[in-house]
Design brief:
single chain; alpha+beta; Multidrug efflux transporter AcrB transmembrane fold; Alpha-Beta Plaits; 3 domains; 4-stranded antiparallel sheet; two-stranded parallel ribbon; 11 helices
């Protein structure tokens, strides 16, 4: 059984390391595929906007004992009432049916009677509501305005807080990445977009930003220390930050998704379409995508954006020289089955390969490499002298 706490401690101290930065092309490729699929869904299949956006009449038939052939029954009743256009029918909770049609205010009463007769329930069990498209258009306009204002404020706050525009750009790219993939999933699977879904889309941006800022804060702390001691490259310091916050990101994401998943199960099996189901679906998809972008996209993109800066290049050169000095040759003892060499990889971890000597990677207590005198190796010459034996 995996000891999660031990793994988390090893990741934080650098004993174990996942090379997030060195494999950024893999993460970019995965995101590119997801974005392409999302765009295909958005522009080829289109978005399934709810009745609040397109307008129309909605009827709910309660107390239905037999839902077999509900689509045909609904279509026949709506046609009998003289309402044309497409009819969207959904079973809710096993004993209720929702029917959506084009706007027909004058025919609502006739449709209620026809639907009640078709499903074998009194007309009083059928409720009708008329929704105009202007309300949905107003919601869409306000949501887009809120999104633009949100992104501008996020860019300004992140640039001021982190004192660099690169973190603001990386954070914004991660947010747009999350939004496009989330909306694309809705398009590919035909999920209905309602005003509650729009609220969910805006909410997940805040969650994704929160997770990204936590990771970036640790990146700033580690890279500032690297700039001071010149022992790690910028990529190594950033990669260590992602490893140190990995367990926290996974834990908070799982804790957030569990109750939302419970709401989704209840919504799909018992409640049916509604505000609670629409909001929880958007949150579930968005939080999962946001956790991915915070770990695999935001920080690797930040490193790529800063890779060409003069200060970062100077740090990488200084760190490379410092790390080469930490490799101290140690003779292999007699009877050793093989000889090895330890080298420091791009993510700061050590690897062994065949060679003529064992190279010792000497590190300080905080995990950073430290310089060792060239004579600090094993051998009789460097052993401490033993005190003379006392004469009896």
């Amino acid at each position: 059984m995996i000891n999660v706490s031990q793994v988390g401690n090893d990741l934080y101290t650098g004993k174990r390391s996942i090379d997030f930065i060195g494999r950024q092309r893999t993460w970019y490729a995965v995101s590119a595929v997801l974005i392409v699929l999302a765009l295909v869904g958005i522009f080829a299949r289109g978005l399934n906007f709810g009745i609040e956006f397109r307008g129309g009449s909605e009827f709910r038939i309660n107390g239905v004992t037999n839902t077999q052939g509900y689509e045909a029954k609904a279509q026949a009743a709506i046609s009998q009432a003289g309402i044309g256009g497409n009819v969207l029918t959904t079973v809710i909770g096993g004993n209720s049916v929702r029917v959506q049609t084009e706007a027909a205010n004058e025919s609502n009463e006739a449709a209620k009677v026809a639907l009640g007769t078709g499903f074998g329930v009194p007309a009083t069990n059928v409720s009708a509501s008329l929704i105009g498209p202007s309300w949905g258009q107003s919601v869409s306009t306000k949501a887009i305005q809120a999104l633009v204002v949100f992104l501008i404020l996020v860019a300004l706050v992140m640039a001021i807080y982190f004192r660099t525009w690169t973190m603001a750009v990386a954070g914004l790219v991660a947010l747009i990445h999350d939004l496009v993939i989330t909306v694309g999933i809705y398009a590919l699977f035909g999920f209905e977009i309602t005003p509650s879904s729009m609220i969910g889309f805006l909410t997940i941006l805040g969650y994704s930003l929160y997770d990204t800022v936590v990771v970036f804060d640790k990146v700033r702390e580690n890279t500032t220390a690297a700039m001071a001691n010149r022992r790690r490259t910028y990529a190594q310091a950033a990669n260590l930050a992602v490893n140190q916050t990995l367990v926290r990101s996974v834990n908070t994401t799982v804790v957030a998704l569990l109750p939302i998943a419970a709401i989704l199960v209840v919504g799909f099996t018992r409640l049916g379409p509604g505000t609670l189901l629409d909001l929880s679906l958007a949150l579930f998809v968005g939080i999962a995508v946001g956790a991915y972008s915070s770990i695999f996209i935001a920080t690797p993109l930040l490193v790529d954006l800063r890779r060409g800066e003069a200060a970062v290049k100077d740090l990488d050169q200084a760190a490379s020289r410092a790390q080469s000095k930490t490799k101290v040759a140690v003779p292999v003892g007699a009877g050793a089955p093989a000889e090895a060499q330890t080298t420091l990889s791009s993510d700061g971890s050590t690897h062994h390969a065949a060679g003529s000597t064992v190279v010792q990677d000497v590190r300080a207590a905080d995990g950073a490499p430290r310089e060792v005198h060239k004579w600090a190796q094993s051998g009789p010459r460097n052993q401490p002298k033993r005190p003379p034996k006392s004469k009896r």
